[in-house]
Structure formats: C-alpha cells, structure tokens
Write a structure and sequence with these properties.
Blueprint lengths: L15 H8 L1 H4 L22 H10 L8 H12 L19 H7 L14 H18 L7 H11 L1 H7 L6 H17 L12 H10 L21 H10 L9 H4 L16 E5 L8 E9 L2 E4 L8 E4 L5 E5 L3 H6 L5
Helix pairs in contact: 3-4, 3-6, 4-9, 6-7, 7-8, 7-9, 10-11
Length: 333
C-alpha cells in the first residue's frame, strides 16, 4: 500500500447588527459529537462517497467488526481521492492503492467476474476491506483499540504492531491512524447534534469585512489580486484567519469535519452546492452560513461578496469545520 499522505455588494437591508444576532448562536448551541462511530452498520453522510461506489463501501464496510463503512470510505479517500486510475511514486495502483505484490496475495474477485483487477473498484474496494479484516485478525490479541491497531498494521505491518504491543512509536504510522479515525467522522452520517466550531464566529467576522469585494476566479485575496476572492478562496481565508487551514477547492473542504443536517445548521458552517447531489466530488460552490437561511459567499464573475439564501435546488449539504478534520485532509486527492 502507498504510504500515508500527511499531511465571489452586501445585500440591501442586512446590517451588521442583524448578522451579529445570528452569530451569537455559535456559542449558544452545543451538542455532542458522535463519540466514536459505534458498532454495526454505519450510515454514510450525504454524497460523501461518490454514487458509483456508495453501495460497495456500505456493503464491504461491514465485513468485520474492526471496520465500518465510514472508516473504509476514509481510507479510500485518503489513499486515492476516489480516483480509480491513480498511480503513486511507489507504484501503488488504483482506488485502494495496492502495491502489485500485495495485490497478488490479498486481491480478491469482488464482483465475481472471474478476474482480480487491481484497477477495477468493484474488486479493489472489496479487497481493501478484506485486507483490513485479515490484518485485524493478526492483531486481535494486541492491547488497545482493534481498529487503531488494524490501521497501524495496514501502514507499518502487523509484526511491528504485535511487537510494540499496540500502535508503534512511528510518527508516520501514528499520523496515519489519527488521520483515518478523524476523517471517519466526516464520512459518517451524524447520529447526534454536532458541536459548534470555536473559530466559527471569527471566520464569519473575516467574511463580513470582505462584503462588497469583487469576485475573482481563482482569487485568494492577495495584494496582487486586489484582495479579491472566489468562493473557496474566501472560505479558506476566513478559516485561515482563525488558525485553521482548509484545502483550496470546495469539494475537498467538504471533508473538513462532520455534516450537520439542514435543520441543525449553525453560523460558521460551510454550505455547499452542486449539480449532482449524489457526489461530493462534483461540488462547485461554497459559502459560510450566517443563520436565518443566509450565507456570505463569493458567487460568480461580475458579482461581489454578499449575502445569499442557501435554500436553493442545488443545495448539497454542510460541514462543521473542525481543527482535527482540516488537519487530517490529504494535501492532494
């Protein structure tokens, strides 16, 4: 397996006082994050897994008790970004990033067509789940969390996990385990209210200061760009102003935390829009929710950063940004 990737005028009539009343909700509402993903079948967050692979991930993610669909999805996203044709510098291949020698011994014919094809997600995804479960058997008697130990074995080998008595003191392996377990939360459908981000109000304050700024495709707000932004450039800069680094593009920002449902949105949540409501990789627009059914966004060329309603037919979903969630995202997917 490949080694881990560690990682466009303000709307009339909406004054600052109105917005600040909305922002107050950031610190007035709280709940509980899903505390671990739990046993049994785990629901996948809306569109988090591309539609072409969702049923595979849901089915094979329940192959054994050490994995679940959200954990399997997190592994596949971290390994390949759902690209079935990617090849790593270490010659790891396909959506599950198997090295050919590992595939030779652990690849399975997942779709029953008589072939074991490293490039076919219908074989590679089942093979990734099967390999996870094999590793879990090897480390089942090792102290600690079985899923953590399984992931460590996936990265460093079962022998190292066994001899270390748990996740070995290897930075890459420890980061790999933390990355997958954190990303797991962004792929699971929340089963309880999601805690508000502590930095949400600061991110909104940043975006408020940019109201009326002209949109620029590819804009990051730099001086040479006249301080202009596109949609994801604005959200990235807003959260960067409070110490959270997000990926540059909207469809990767979707994975920076868990996904609250529409009726539980809080100011500071990122809200996403797409022409394909089944696939987060097709997301094309993002804004920062401010409450009352409105967001601040950089909508398009010829427009300015402004307030817009979120309840449109292309509304995809939302993400409550977390520090750990943002840090866990691969640098390239």
């Amino acid at each position: 397996m490949r080694k881990v990737w560690v990682i466009g005028g303000a709307a009339a009539g909406l004054g600052l006082s109105f917005v600040m009343l909305l922002v107050v909700g950031v610190y007035m509402v709280a709940g509980n994050l899903t505390n671990g993903i739990g046993a049994g079948s785990v629901g996948l967050a809306k569109g988090a897994v591309p539609a072409a692979y969702k049923s595979l991930v849901q089915q094979w993610g329940n192959l054994c008790s050490a994995i679940n669909p959200a954990l399997l999805a997190a592994q596949l996203y971290q390994e390949s970004g759902w690209d079935p044709n990617v090849v790593s510098p270490a010659d790891a291949r396909g959506i599950a990033q198997f090295i050919p020698s590992t595939w030779a011994t652990h690849g399975i014919d997942g779709n029953g067509d008589g072939k074991r094809d490293i490039w076919d997600p219908h074989d590679a995804i089942p093979s990734a789940a099967s390999y996870d479960c094999e590793l879990a058997k090897y480390v089942k008697d090792v102290p600690g969390d079985t899923s953590d130990n399984m992931l460590a074995a996936y990265n460093a080998g079962a022998y190292r996990v066994i001899t270390a008595g748990g996740v070995p003191a290897i930075r890459e392996t420890q980061n790999y385990v933390k990355t997958i377990r954190t990303l797991e939360k962004s792929f699971a459908a929340p089963v309880s209210r999601v805690d508000p981000s502590r930095q949400a109000a600061g991110a909104i304050a940043f975006a408020q200061k940019k109201l009326g700024t002209e949109y620029l495709w590819g804009g990051n707000g730099t001086a040479d760009q006249g301080g202009r932004f596109d949609c994801s450039g604005l959200t990235k800069a807003a959260y960067e102003s409070v110490g959270i680094t997000l990926p540059r593009v909207a469809n990767d920002q979707y994975n920076a935390g868990p996904h609250p449902p529409r009726d539980e949105l809080l100011p500071g949540d990122l809200v996403f829009f797409s022409d394909d409501l089944t696939d987060s990789r097709a997301i094309r627009h993002v804004g920062i929710y401010v409450g009352g059914g409105y967001m601040i966004d950089a909508p398009r060329t010829g427009a300015v950063i402004r307030f817009d309603p979120i309840d449109t037919p292309d509304y995809f979903g939302a993400t409550r940004v977390t520090e750990d969630g943002a840090k866990a995202l691969p640098t390239a997917v």
